[in-house]
Amino acid sequence: MDGNSPTARTGNIIENNDRFADAYSGFAQNRFLWGDWTVTPGVRVESVSYQRRNNLPDGKQGQSSLTEVLPSFAMTYMPIDEATLFFDMHRGFAPPRVEDSVYANGQSVEIGAEKSWNYELGVRSQPMAGMKTELTYFRNDFDALTVLGTVGGNDTPVAQGKALFEGIEFMNRIDAGEMFNWEHNPYLQIAYTWLPTAQSTSPFQCMPLSDGTVSPACPGGNVAGSESGKRLPYTPEHLLTATLGYSHPNGFDAHFETVFVADQFADFRSLNSGADHPNGANSPAALSGQYGKINDYVVVNFSTSYKVQKELTLYVSLKNMLDNTYIVDRVRGILPGSPRLVQAGFKYDF
């Protein structure tokens, strides 16, 4: 529904449709053990079909389907009890959403699934009681990565291209109670992702509709500003989550969590602000909120819980407890992060 002002509560209905998706999947794998080595090959099959029907007066409808066979391979080596080396690779697959595959006017988009080859190499270790650590190198090489098209309308074309993501993940947790054999357990956990490589390895091409037409928003058939070698939008280089907490065997737990997300671009042109848009600082595109850098931000959360008895747990949580205002998305215009949110309740296990 489109309103006539930013605070409108009524407006014109622009979309009213039914979306259907049927998905079937199956997998098979086997684990081979040779001393300290474990090898696990496998295969997965995914089949998805889509249908979308427009309930507005024109009654348009369309459908699409796809099937994929996806191999995988994993291997671990445990030379000592305190450490495990691991490697795995698999064929990545993600089907398009119904609204991206079939438009409201009934035309289908000639788009396939996202496909990638994904690799991990790392080590998990527990060097001493109360300490766990993991270090992983990852590489995600996309033959087809889908971007845009998330609004579900004809004005934002779906596009696909090749991309490479490469980086390191690190996790460390220390439980002082287990380390020093204390009843009280102060603990610290850090999870960090470094993503130095997140680049296009080909221009992202707008997908044609079933009648062969391509959106006029795609000059030369490609997303404006897309080119090989550029860093992709929505790919912050640094992500960090640090947790400091305390737990007790009587069932009490409380912890603070700090989340840091580095700055990132929101469009393929890598514009610092909407005012830099080539259409001009006062153009509708520049003022839409869809263009410009998303600044880095920090969010602090707090959570506590108490296990009253085996089946009953009480909890209280504060998300964004400092009530910071920050941008998380520009696809539909500026989307702010959640304001301070307080939740309290209980969980009962039957």
From TrEMBL:
Domain of life: Bacteria
Membrane topology: Multi-pass membrane protein
PROSITE patterns: TONB_DEPENDENT_REC_2, TONB_DEPENDENT_REC_3
Pfam families in the record: TonB_dep_Rec_b-barrel
Gene3D superfamilies linked: TonB-dependent receptor, beta-barrel domain
Coiled-coil parts of chain: none
Stated name of the protein: TonB-dependent receptor
Organism: Crenothrix polyspora
